[in-house]
Amino acid sequence: MKNRKILLTEQEVPEFWYNILADMPNKPLPPLHPGTREPIGPEALAPLFPMELIKQEVSTDKWVPIPDAVRDVYTLWRPTPLYRAYALEKALDTPAKIYYKYEGVSPAGSHKPNTAVPQAYYNQQEGVKRITTETGAGQWGSALAFACNLFGIECEVYMVKISYDHKPYRKMMMNTWGAKVYASPTDHTQAGRMILAQDPNSPGSLGIAISEAVERAASDENTKYALGSVLNHVLMHQTVIGQEALKQMEKAGDMPDIVVAPFGGGSNFAGIAFPFLRLNFEEGRNIRCIAAEPSSCPKLTRGVFRYDFGDTVGMTPLLPMYTLGHNFVPAPIHAGGLRYHGAGVIVSQLLKDRLIEARAHEQLECFESGVLFARTEGIIPAPEATHALATVVQEAQRCKEEGVSRTILFNLCGHGHFDLKAYEDYFEGKLVSHEVTQGEIEASLAQLDTPLIG
Ligand SMILES: *Cc1c(COP(=O)(O)O)cnc(C)c1O
Fold it and tell me: Which residue among 111, 246, 273, 429 is least packed, with the fewest CB closer than 10 Å?
């Protein structure tokens, strides 16, 4: 019998999150106040986040303990399985060894609960009554709805309108866990009204939805805000993925040469890659970590590294990151979770320092790889995850061409059971190739008056 599935026991759920800030050769530049454009300290975040998360956001402690109450909830689905993709390898006729970590076994069906649970927990500890957030495809909203429900906190979700219309079942999931869900832009925030005045048919974007959720939290003292990606503490919470995967690879007697994950704001990429980058820092290994993004929203491969807002309206602090400009509205591709204009600060600095790599894929190529995966390994990947698969297929084909075997690990960050409309569109030939033009990128960047770096 082949050893297809590598499992850990509940006792092996990590006891610490790994904070890569402690090991980075160049620390990220500080965030700037959106108005004064001066560096801000952690206290500026106090209206939006509980103190413990703010501390984690700026912490340089290498290991941050995971509270028992959080580990206890993690064991509902963690440790997640690691699989060797024998059938995919065979179909690709490649000498490469391919492994995947499957985060789709969580209640919400993606990696997002890894951070939703600790975020809800720390808010509860500090007496917060309500959490607002944005959601793209609905994965983050459903993860936060699930977590808030466990800790008795109200949850209010601003869902990007195009996804709200295309993905009604995600909304129902959130409702089942007790959350209120609104199609963003709405007319009950200033930010939403401003966008609707410019374009009553706006499909929405993550940037717009963030503006709405932040505005709600900033204007009520019992309400805080939660972000499902981009921020340092979110990336750190996700490192349970890579720590488990590292143990599982060791159990399999193997070690990846290449680690791949899809990239929206950077959280699932960080989650799987950072614990392996730690080995590069500590032991001088040379594990290549590749972030896979859509060519219709290519901030890592075609964006610029400069200060920009996290949202569309310009309410968040300015962050030093790879960005396409905060006014960039990506084409309505099906990988909703990857339609974000910017990238997390840590991941941006790592890319700037060439410690990680990035690659863009066009959505038809992604679905082709996704369907191949479903037909070989069985699991139907989330559209986001198919971007990682496109990179994996390329790397596996390279191994074949070069006649070398490399070990490839990728993060299968979620299943696609609520995204079958996307598969239907693909099978009916309705999905189009979409690559943003240089003119579109330049037009968006030309609108930025935010500080340049270096
Ligand atoms: C949210 C999401 C993403 C993108 O966000 P990251 O922070 O980059 O991980 C990718 N895949 C799935 C399944 C998601 O839910």
Answer: 429
